[in-house]
Amino acid sequence: LSYLRQTLSLVTNPTLLSNDEIARTFPTDILEQAKFILHKIKGVGAYTDSQGSAFSRQSIAKFIERRDKIGQVDFKNVFLSNGASGSISMVLDALLFSEKDTVMIPIPQYPLYSALLTLKGATAVGYFFESKDDRWHLDSQILETAILDSLKVGKKPKAIVVINPGNPIGQLLSYEQMVDIVHFCEKYGLAILADEVYQENVYDPASEFHSFRKVVLQLQSSVPVASLNSLSKGFVGECGLRGGYAEFLNWDPEVMTVINKLASIFLCSNTVAQVALHLMVSPPLPGSPSFQLYDSEKQQILGALSRKAKLLYLSLNKMSNIQCNRIEGAMYAFPEVFLSPSACQAASALGIPPDQLYCLEALERTGIVLVPGSGFGQKAGTHHFRITNLLSEEAMQEVMGEFAGFNEEFHNRYS
Ligand SMILES: Cc1ncc(COP(=O)(O)O)c(C=O)c1O
Question: For ligand 1, is residue 84 a contact (CB within 6 Å)?
């Protein structure tokens, strides 16, 4: 986004502010924004508070209040991190102490969660999204089954991770499903790790993103929620800047003390991303000189993602032996591919899972990179792959054609 990059360039190199050419060519509100930021934080070369600069945290607190239209956010409960990944790791560090400690995670899941739990010596209890009527489905019965299995072996989960909209399955939870999850957490005393990094990436015009914070406040629930957001997704897509945050609601003060200590171990998160987070949540206002370009870039990015999600869904469902659920949000599809016994035998002879054989062959024959479903977890006996809608629109048509050719040829060869 021009707004973000232009402002960051001035903030990281303030001498540009006295350059005549810049003064003539940059929109005046961007020059003002950069001066305002520099007045607030002085520069990006020093450590900030361990939680992140109060300035950026205050902007984030205001953004959350505007988004949810309920309750106030104390910026002291906002922690900035190097990507949402930093916040996720910190929250898990605060919650997990021994191998008896357990967290519920979705299956299929973004592998950061299972990897971190393994690294921290804790265990994961998977709850399985079900593929039903062209959608990925979750209900409290699925959660109950998962937790009861865990309790039977003496493991009581401390928290549940909910990724919404989801990576890798692209689902978007309805308000009613979220209410059910909050009630489930009340029943079993769980905190919610609400991974909401794809909150801007919603494709179904009839659906809406709801934050867990909002649902918990509307239910007047005391369930603790850590809400995660990131610079990496949405329409900002600045994943290399490594900026993210967690906002804490209803957490025990003792846990917050531990989280504060954990944040201070690493001094602070990177400062350029802290400024970028402020910019992400403080876009140009309608009528300001930079608004038109900002808005057209934003609409172009979100519009293209949405068109490509639809193209992906339609193209995949035309291919033989593939079934793809609706892509409601995020940046992915997670279709099921029905593999023949002979494909499964060929994979077993190579000592790899069948979906890995499919993905490796797709790579070797077409150069298309897919991620095997076994990397995210899937129901036993089923095979999936993850594919993104991040290619350019021009490339997407051609790539889907090539992929359809590969898929046909693969199934014929292993028929
Ligand atoms: C669901 C989910 N959570 C967290 C992350 C990490 O994002 P970040 O770049 O902010 O660390 C990703 C990245 O792909 C993701 O898909």
Answer: yes
How many other CB atoms are found less than 10 A from the CB of residue 12?
15
Residue 15, CA distances (Å) to 19, 38, 88, 271 in order: 7, 12, 37, 18
Cβ proximity of 309 and 303 under 8 Å: no
How much is the average pLDDT of 211-232?
98
Q: Taking Cα atoms as reference points, which of 393, 44, 93, 85 lies closest to residue 232?
A: 85
Q: What are phi and psi of 80, to 5 degrees?
A: -90, 150
Q: Is the CB of residue 229 below 6 angstroms from any atom belonging to ligand 1?
A: no
Q: What is the pLDDT of residues 327-353, one digit of tens each?
A: 999 999 999 999 999 999 999 999 999
How far apart (Å, rounded) are the C-alpha atoms in residues 232 and 83? 7
From the alpha carbon of 198, which atom of ligand 1 is closest? 1
> 163: Cβ below 6 Å to ligand 1?
yes
Atom of ligand 1 at shortest range from CA of 230: 10
Residue 26 DSSP class: S
Q: Per residue in 148-207, pLDDT tens?
A: 999 999 889 999 999 999 999 999 999 999 999 999 999 999 999 999 999 999 998 888
> Whole-model pTM?
0.93
DSSP character string of 286-342 = TTSTTHHHHHHHHHHHHHHHHHHHHHHHHHHHHSTTEE-----BTTEE--EE---HH
Closest ligand 1 atom to Cα of 85: 11
Write the CB contacts of 122 (distance below 8 Å, at least 6 apart in sequence): 92, 96, 98, 99, 101, 102, 103
In a mutational test of the pocket of ligand 1, which residue from 232, 331, 386 has the highest number of ligand atoms less than 8 Å from its CB? Answer: 232
Rounded CA separation 229/80 (Å): 10
